[in-house]
Every structure is written in C-alpha cells, then in structure tokens.
Amino acid sequence: MKTKIRNVSKIVLSIIVFINIILISTSIVLNLAEFNAIFFFDIFVCLVLLFDFFKGFNKSSDKLGYFKENFIGLIAAIPFDLMLSPFLVSDYIMFIKFIRVLLLIALFFRIVGVFLKSTHLDEILGVFVLVVIGSTLGLYLIDPSMNNLFDDLWFVIVSLTTVGYGDITPSTVFGKVFSLVLLIIGVFIFSAITGAISSYFMDNVLQEGSYHIHELKENVANSEEELKKVNEQLNENEKKIEELKEEIIELKEIIEKNN
Questions:
Q1: HEC profile of 134-174
Q2: Beta strands in the chain (DSSP E)
Q3: Which of 257, 211, 141 lies closest to 1 in space, CA to CA?
Q4: Strand, helix or coil at 120?
Q5: Separation in Å, CA 180 to CA 141, 171, 187, 192
Q6: What DSSP assignment string belongs to 205-220?
Q7: How many Å apart are CA 70 and CA 10, to the nearest integer?
Q8: Helices (DSSP H) in the chain: which residue ranges?
Q9: Number of neighbours of residue 46 by Cβ within 10 angstroms
Q10: How far is the C-alpha of 154 from the C-alpha of 200, rounded, in Å?
Q11: Contact 156, 132 (CB under 8 A)
Q12: Closest of 164, 161, 163 to residue 191, by C-alpha
C-alpha cells in the first residue's frame, strides 16, 4: 500500500510541475501581471515541492546525500521571482522566471526519469524516436510525391500511432508498402509501452504482496516461538506438580508413622 501511494504521489507531483512549467512559460511569453491565477498556482506548487523535499529529508538516514541528490528540487521550490519582484525591474524578473522554468524542467525529468528507467520506457521511447527519424528520411527518399519533410514526419507519426487521419497518403507502391511496415511497427511499439507500464504496476503489487507475505511469515514464526515457550513453561509446571505430589506423599507417610 505504501509503495502504491508513493507511486501515485510521484505521478501527481510530476503532473503539477509540468502544468506549472507551462503556466510560467506562458506568463513569460505574454508578460502577464504578477498577481493572477498563475501566481497562486505557482505558490501552491512551491509549497508542495517544499513539503516533498523536507518530508524526504526527514526520513532519509543520509541527510547530506539526500540534499546533494535533491538540491535542484529545493532551489526550484523557492519562488525567487516572486520574492524579489518588489526590488527588481521586470527584465530581471523575467530572467529569474526563465531560470526557474529550467530548474522545474530538470526536476520534472528527474521525477519522470526514475519512472522511465524502472519501466525501460526510456529504451522504448529511444527506439520510437529513431524509427520516426529514420522512417521520415526513408519516406522522403522513397516517395517523392510527398510535399516536404514535415508532411513525411506527420504521416510517419500518424501511421505509428495507428490514428490514420488520411489527409496525407503515399502515392507510390514503395510508399504504401513502407506505410504498412510502419503500421506493424507502431502496433509493436505501443504494445511494448502498454506492457512496460502494466509490468511496472504489477511488480509494485507483487512487491507489496511479498512484503505482506514476509510479514505474515514473521508473525507465524513469532507465534511458534511463543507457543514453544508456553509449552516449555507447561512442562516445567507439570514437573513442579509431580514434585509437589511426591512431597505430599512423603508428608503423609511421615504423619502416618508419627501416629
């Protein structure tokens, strides 16, 4: 259960960081005023990041190591642009915002990177990018009827994702055969992505289940030890009772002799 909650919290954290990156970037491009909805959402994200940092810092046994690994998250969580806005001109504020966007992007990829590596999605996405680039260039050379490289790229991505809008299609035989191969490759790639994500969550469920099984085994072992101790205590009590019986018999014999 704890693993599942931790995974969900990381996903939620990555989502709100990504949204904050989009909103701050929008405020930079449009030169929006400081006190607006973006401002309050940014404050909320900063509080969440600070809470996440200090929660992990408090639980970590190696404080210095944790700080070195997560100092980017701490710096990204401090809204320097909002704190210094009363003292600096707008150009400097925009520059600080730009730096914060870069830090948030680094933090986002750090959070997502752990998930990608654990699911091997980084390798699958790498293959996907190579297929897209290679297929775009190959289609550009094979089918000259396509207008430009962008149309080739559009057709490749639409084919790999099996969406198939049909607005751009190859006209030559080689182009059509090439598009069939792309469709098959797309099915395999996205099946691999689905399988990797499912395997990741199943592994977490199995780890959680194995943890509970191990805990039950420990409880059973402890119960067996306690039962063993109780049995030993009962045996000792039985011995003491037998000794008492023998003493009582001896006392009776002594009393009878005296009488």
A1: HHHHHHHHHCCCCCCHHHHHHHHHHHHCCCCCCCCCCCCHH
A2: none
A3: 211
A4: coil
A5: 17, 13, 11, 19
A6: HHHHHHHHHHHHHHHH
A7: 14
A8: 2-30, 37-59, 63-76, 80-84, 90-119, 121-142, 149-160, 173-258
A9: 17
A10: 31
A11: yes
A12: 161
88 three-class SS? coil
Tell me the C-alpha distance between 188 and 184, whole Å: 6
Largest Cα–Cα separation, the chain: 131
To which H or E segment does residue 31 belong? none
pLDDT by residue, tens only, the chain of 259 residues: 555 566 667 777 778 888 888 887 877 777 666 556 777 888 888 888 888 888 888 888 888 888 887 788 788 888 777 777 777 777 677 777 788 788 787 777 777 776 667 667 767 777 888 888 888 888 888 877 777 778 888 888 888 887 777 777 788 888 888 888 888 888 888 888 787 777 766 766 555 554 455 555 666 667 777 778 877 888 887 888 887 877 777 777 777 776 6
| Contacting residues for 115 by C-beta, under 8 A, at least 6 apart | 10, 11, 14, 121, 200
Residues in the chain: 259
Q: Evaluate whether 30 touches 114 at the Cβ level (below 8 Å).
A: no
| Whether the Cβ atoms of residue 77 and residue 70 lie closer than 8 Å to each other | no
Instruction: Tell me the C-alpha distance between 102 and 100, whole Å.
Output: 5
Structure tokens given for 72? 């980017």
Please give the structure tokens belonging to residue 51.
């809470």
Its pTM surpasses 0.90: no
